[in-house]
């Protein structure tokens, strides 16, 4: 009888040491809990101690050769450094889709759709202010203070964050 592939150890020796991010650590914990894998069971698969998994998860250890093997076991994206937030979110969405967790994927997708709507609204507001500025500057006798006020409002509008900090937290109760 062959060994259970789920219990086979991952060989991280050939993997490089990779730094983690707070987002990756959060994803790691969520995926581990979603898959109902204990820290101890994950440590056995990795060939390390449970304390190593705990320290990676809570950020005490911020880089390890176990990061990429954890990504393979939990089907999560590797830590993304130097990516813009939008790229990280689409990468996370792709890995959720790949993992088959429909509920988590649906929640992420709703959050991204809301973020796109916020970005579009902010861009529309900026364009309206640019149009008002152009009109005011072309109009004869435009008050310099009015033109400056419109210009200040236009440059003050910033794109909203892609996702509110608590957008994907499930309500419990």
Q: Which features characterize this protein?
A:
173 residues, mainly alpha, 434 Repressor (Amino-terminal Domain), 2 domains, two-stranded antiparallel ribbon, 2% strand, disordered N terminus
Briefly, what is this?
By secondary structure, this protein is mainly α. Helices cover 60% and strands 2% of the residues.
Walk me through the structure.
A two-stranded antiparallel sheet has the order 1-2. The protein folds into two domains: 77 residues, 434 Repressor (Amino-terminal Domain) (Orthogonal Bundle), CATH 1.10.260.40; 54 residues. With 173 residues, the protein is an all-alpha fold. Helix content is 60%, strand content 2%.
CATH architecture designation of the largest domain: Orthogonal Bundle
| Spatial strand sequence of the major β-sheet | 1-2
CATH-defined superfamily of the largest domain: lambda repressor-like DNA-binding domains
Proportion in β-strands: under 5%
End-to-end distance: 45 Å
Please state the CA-atom Rg, rounded to the nearest Å: 23 Å
Provide the succession of SSEs: EHHHEHHHH
Lay out the secondary structure.
Blueprint: E1 18-19, H1 22-34, H2 39-46, H3 50-58, E2 63-64, H4 67-74, H5 85-99, H6 102-138, H7 144-156
Antiparallel strand pairs: 1-2
Helix pairs in contact: 2-3, 5-6, 6-7
